[in-house]
Amino acid sequence: MNLDFSQIVPYIPFMLEGIWVTLKFVFFAIILGAILGTILALFKIGSIKPLRWFADAYTSIFRGTPLILQLMIIYYSIPQLTGYDISPFLSAILAFGLNSSAYISEIIRAGIQAVDKGQMEAAQALGIPYRAMMKDIILPQALKNILPALMNEFITLTKESAIVSTIGYLDLMRRAQVVGSDLFRNFEPLLFVGLIYWCLVMGLTVLGRLFERRLKLSD
What biological process terms from GO does the record include (predicted)? Predict the structure, then answer.
């Protein structure tokens, strides 16, 4: 086996730029997923049947089909159907955000239902409006229970972000492919980028544990 990492040294800054490019769309995708996921979770535990059916159908579709298929549909079908040329960056945010919202909705729903029912009954007995009850009483308690699952979702999105290279988005994976094509050597740049992904995941894992520890100390 003939390995020569010296050849990728001039390309290291180019590949390192992919860290910011990757985390940027993952950050916006997780925000979109969290907002939509919270709304879907409230639909699922609500009393309005059409909204419950919609939320369940939405979750079934996005959890039951491959993420790469959803990305391809958004990137290639939107221009075909609307005539609007959507960018790879926006396509990535939409695909990952919509997909993540389906998983986050289940996480939040489980977290809300894990909160002691007496909390909700007491709030209703005091005449606290439903929206205020959820925002100020139920969701803050649920967040403490679901934080590890939410961090796992963020880590999963970071790892799965590599598939955006299939639509030409210059993330970490795509930059490794560009360097490999330029040097006619793929193993070294892929291994280097793999190390970066590992560092990102380990960093997010440590960050998640710190948040968990802080929440436990605040109890």
Answer: amino acid transport
Residue 198's pLDDT band, with cuts at 50, 70 and 90, is very high
The pLDDT assigned to 148 comes to: 81
Residue 133, φ and ψ in degrees, nearest 5: -60, -45
Residue with tokens 């860290």: 19
pTM (2 d.p.)? 0.86
Residue linked to tokens 């598939």: 163
Whole-number Å distance between alpha carbons of 38 and 109: 8
56 Cβ partners below 8 Å, 6+ apart? 44
Given 3.40.50.2300, 3.40.190.290, 2.40.30.10, 1.10.3720.10, which CATH number is that of 8-218? 1.10.3720.10
The CB-side HSE value for 107 (13 A sphere, CA atoms) comes to: 24
Rounded Cα distance between 116 and 134, Å, is 13
Q: Would you state the pLDDT for residue 79?
A: 86
Task: List, for residues 8-58, the tens digit of each pLDDT value.
Answer: 999 999 999 999 999 999 999 999 999 999 999 989 988 889 999 999 999
Question: To the nearest 10°, the Cα dihedral for 8, 11, 21, 84?
Answer: -110
